[in-house]
Amino acid sequence: MFFKIFLILLAAFCTISLLFILFIYRFTIQERKKVLQLEVRLLCKTDHHALLEACREVSRMYARGDLKKSQYWIRDSRNAEEIRACPDFS
């Protein structure tokens, strides 16, 4: 009698655990696909020449000593509409 109850409870626990794992796996896969799509969209819409020039300018500024070694948060209001149209990647 107790063995049958134990088997039923064990089967229920295993079923619930399996469903939970499948749900988490599915959610993770969907989120990964969204991130990949956003990365592709970001790469397609990036002006690579302007980005390269901006990186070179920052490197020149650092080499001249205009920038100190630190973390900088850069905001550019010139393209505010474009920035607002971009998805939030945080």
Q: Quick recap of the structure?
A:
With 90 residues, the chain is mostly helical. Helix content is 74%, strand content 0%.
Strand content bin:
under 5%
Structural class based on helices, strands and sheet pairing: mainly alpha
Number of helices: 3
Elements, N to C (H/E): HHH
Distance between the termini: 55 Å
Spell out the blueprint of helices and strands.
Layout: H1 2-45, H2 48-64, H3 80-85
Describe the structure.
By secondary structure, the chain is an all-alpha fold. Helix content is 74%, strand content 0%. It contains three helices and no strands. It has helices at 2-45, 48-64, 80-85. The mean pLDDT is 80.
Comma- or semicolon-separated keywords:
90 residues, mainly alpha, 3 helices
